[in-house]
Known about the structure:
The structure is a homodimer of 709-residue chains. By secondary structure, chain A is α/β, with parallel strands linked by helices.
Amino acid sequence: MSASVDRKFNDTPEKLVANTIRCLAADLTQEFKGGHPGTVMGAANIAIALWRFAMRYNPKNPDWLNRDRFVLSAGHACLMQYIQLHFTGYDAWTLDQLKTYHNPNFGMAAGHPEIEYPGCEVTTGPLGQGLANAVGMAIAAKNLAATYNKSDYELFNSTVWAFTGDGCLQEGVGQEALSMAGHLKLDNLIVIYDDNHITVDGNINITFTEDTCAKMAANGFHVIKIEDGTNDLGAIIHAFETAKTVKGKPVFIHIRTVIGYGSRKANTGAAHGTALGPDETKYTKSALGFDPEIKCVIPDEVYDYYRPVVKRGADDEAAWTTLFSQYADAFPAEHAELTQRLSGQLPADWRQQLPPKSDLPSAPQPTRKSSGIAVNALASKYNTFTAGSADLADSTFVSFKGQTDFQAPESGLGDYSGRQIRYGIREFAMVAAANGMAAFHKGLFIPICSTFFQFWIYAAPAARMSALQKLRIIGVGTHDCIGIGEDGPTHQPIALASLYRSLPNFNFVRPADAEEVMGAWELALDASDTPSLFAFSRQNVPLLEGSDRSKVKLGAYPIFSTSATAAPELVLIGTGSEVARAIDAAKLLSEKLGLVVRVVSMPSQAHFDRQPFEYRDEVLGSGKALVVGIEAWSSYGWARYAHASLSMHTFGCSAPQEKLFEIFGFGVENVAAKIEEWVGRRRSEDGKIVLPRLGEFEELLLGYAQLHH
Amino acid sequence: MSASVDRKFNDTPEKLVANTIRCLAADLTQEFKGGHPGTVMGAANIAIALWRFAMRYNPKNPDWLNRDRFVLSAGHACLMQYIQLHFTGYDAWTLDQLKTYHNPNFGMAAGHPEIEYPGCEVTTGPLGQGLANAVGMAIAAKNLAATYNKSDYELFNSTVWAFTGDGCLQEGVGQEALSMAGHLKLDNLIVIYDDNHITVDGNINITFTEDTCAKMAANGFHVIKIEDGTNDLGAIIHAFETAKTVKGKPVFIHIRTVIGYGSRKANTGAAHGTALGPDETKYTKSALGFDPEIKCVIPDEVYDYYRPVVKRGADDEAAWTTLFSQYADAFPAEHAELTQRLSGQLPADWRQQLPPKSDLPSAPQPTRKSSGIAVNALASKYNTFTAGSADLADSTFVSFKGQTDFQAPESGLGDYSGRQIRYGIREFAMVAAANGMAAFHKGLFIPICSTFFQFWIYAAPAARMSALQKLRIIGVGTHDCIGIGEDGPTHQPIALASLYRSLPNFNFVRPADAEEVMGAWELALDASDTPSLFAFSRQNVPLLEGSDRSKVKLGAYPIFSTSATAAPELVLIGTGSEVARAIDAAKLLSEKLGLVVRVVSMPSQAHFDRQPFEYRDEVLGSGKALVVGIEAWSSYGWARYAHASLSMHTFGCSAPQEKLFEIFGFGVENVAAKIEEWVGRRRSEDGKIVLPRLGEFEELLLGYAQLHH
């Protein structure tokens, strides 16, 4: 292959490698006519500086614990990373795998990096989130160091490298994350800004003219600028070395590059998101000293150039492994704990930390407060948990006894061993950072994140990424309905549950009382590959006689009946704070109508869907009962379980919570009256109940007409 | 009442007014034991400077077109605004209305400002969004000025004032908006930062230590600092006057205040989000020279102090009204267009701009491209429309012939008369800014916003606010399913539709072809109080013989049948790009099974739900047909319309789109085979079809098991 390259033009190994990268990017995108060549071509020297020089990792063991982490926040530039993973000798990243990019015979070279594949620390693509993932990883590394490092035993000292373009810096989540990183003084974070001035819609000056470096300095970053990142490999290598020595601040390296360098589309939007075209691809390869007719040429010298990386990586890991085994002798307790955590499993006694039902407070209390019992018990005992909130820790009860704040030690407010994380009013970055923590090493951290349930709509793009990546984070969403009261419709979730209920690989749980809260925590901790989000009440709910934590994982179960023996003729399904109301309504209805009424608590629709038909059918009354869902959210999704629903048909309003339940028709008398009227309409002339068929699902309109708006 | 105030202590009118505000805030929150007193008390002088001095408005006509707009981005501080609306003489804002704050007899004094009420320009509360609303209003004002102002006829010159706390500056959407405002050089925007150092969780130094002023300067703002905003009214008034004279930059005014000033809880989180308590309320009132035992005292001098505002406002409006009538004579065409726009109605010929079906391209094309026909026809003709994208204008086809970019004139890239808005990669701020534009004056602007459908999850918190506020924005979400192909699962929406389908007052439409696209646009433009979001395909879809734009508003309608006369035995419901697949599958199934198969196109579930039962029942086969939904999204919500569904059960993956439809089971052969097998299982021993009952909804699992992950 080497004969096809012009050695005079490519007269240094560095130049040859950079141009090989550029030609590969041109060829791989052209082959199946799609993808993003431009950034890869412009940033070739950044890639070389990272993988050949700056980063510490072992290509032969991509999972080595103390490796540096690389996060491609500009995920569309993934070819840049894939090519390096091939060059440096990741076994799985063969040339054939590189060629699966945009290929109908698809493989590891996905359109954006995917966490399943070696060398890809997180899945990126939705812009801005990678920066927050990197911040989460830097938090994880700092916390591990502060928790386990000992004098002469620096087990954890890895650096997190994030690569960003303009997009991630424009996205709000990126700005949230960078502000957080500066505040926390995460000097193990290095953000590389590839500034090529080009986005999909053209030159960046149409949208983004801020002084980025000044802004990053204002965020508390140490800022380095490189003028010619397209060609000046030495400057980049030097900057990366300098960055590693900076103390007390994260580092932002602004590198000016030329998108699509080598082609005549350089410096234009045309080089961003499409292949260069057959002629331009040939032109580019010629211009870079490569044979235009031969595809995907990788001269042997390129592999030679990267060869030292393999040995260096193996040596680094071996030294670390030795250190770790010495650590085992010197600090057996810490070593044992860490080993336990690395296994991805909590210690076997975790379930016993949750008090049995008999020990739960018998007086009514908010489910958020009941959850606080679990958070406190778990997080104060196991270093695996981080607890945090977007400025609502006292409201969400996500805090624990004896906690230390995760803060820069020099702040005087905590230190890096702290596991109470103050995310600030940055819901989206909170969850995206939690994803980074969870991705640092599978199961090593279980981040708990919290805010009002309504504001999980801000964090939804990150929670979706938790599910996609099978990262176990635990979300706490409190004040979960009109029960928030006076704060009004902006703070009252009506339609958000539908999103989380329909998301694949996601546990969305709304427990009815303190006992079901414990079941929700058990469910989340039993599921190592699935994120969870709990919806908790602001207001008091009673501890229900029939509640049973072990049944939460069934999704739904009968919690009350007006008859101990007879089959139900009417089934009321409630969730969360509405279950107690359903039980009161059932008693009233049974009296009025003389029917056997069952109440079902349904903390998780998705878990119910997974049960055998026989179970589901029995719970829903075996095709012989009328079924009504009662939930102070949108009716959306209820037709699968019920013939009718009492739901929210509009947004809420600002008034005290008890008043709101009355106004919107969830007062027990009103619930009973509406159902009674509906049951009346479902009777045939001979008095028998006729079950509704498809299309007859009814939303029993409530009292909202009383409201003036 | 006046006797109850210590005149020696309150020895100037300014001091008396400020302390009246503080005592009112303490009393009103204490009365029903809730709300946010602290900011109101700290920022009393900011409020005075705004409403008594800086802002131009007419309390007797809150809707005067050229008024300044005030946006309380820190919505929880609403009492500050309500009190001013009372003091300045807004008729509706009586003292009794003030007292409805947190009152079971609720009224206008909602927990956060609500757009329905006089003097409240937008509904705020979800932090950060108010800043973006204000940016949108500033864009609207600039655009109107550039479009209609003439020499000597400065019809539009209003200023937008945004009040923010720490929270809005931490939120990513706030940062997106501020970056955008700086780029656009919106010198009619003044952002007031009330820096009281306190959030819910305590001192701001636990989360937010960046150099905010330096950051704002980097964003392109002119920055002014005021050290003692708690007491130095003169400095605030001066800063506001200066701010109004700044040209070419928006202005950021950093004002240091003391939260809860006057109480012993000053400077603590305890003054933020709860009443001060009975004793502390009394103490505070005493300390401020008010009788602790008398509630809600407003000395007459306070009303006297504000009296000039009424005359000034009336004079300002009268002068403007005169100018406007002179404008009518001088510029009749512009006046007529503006008057038409102010009516909130598009000109009557808008519908004719959409080409009839016979003029639509007969060759298959993506629905996003078909939508481009409508965008181009409407936006190039009517100044009412702004068209914009989060850096994907060419992909979403939200652009139009002869467009000018909305840019600062000195940029050389456009000017403020432009209606093509370059939002940058800031989806959330895009939609929140669009809300501001739509709220500037009802119906004056119809902002069209666009990005890939998946990234409407970033913008969802703002789209929800569109619905809550009845603001008509039009959202375009393209690349709406696995049809996006190689970009992979991060870019493939699976579960997002559920959110938008369950949102009250929201038109979510997924058209099947170019004809239904026109119907979607008609539906959106017929609904003046409802926002819309369209999901469009990246890939080609054919123009369907049975498609009918007039039926889109019915939500669903039969689009194909294998028999012209016979009633259907099997109904397939498709949406968007899956309708054509359903028609092909219907033909195959009819051949194989000998059944009459109907295909229903269902562009909008919510509109279908609103039809009479008789219509819905007939469409779904009158209780005599098996019904299957076919949609490449989550099955969530389908049980209301179908007995089974072919859906996405997992996230997607990166591969070419046709490959993905095959892999995930939407290939026509596979669809037919799965349904055939299921229909077989629904037959009783005598061959008759037994319709499923509640709980028997089935998700027909597709070919995903073939995939390695």
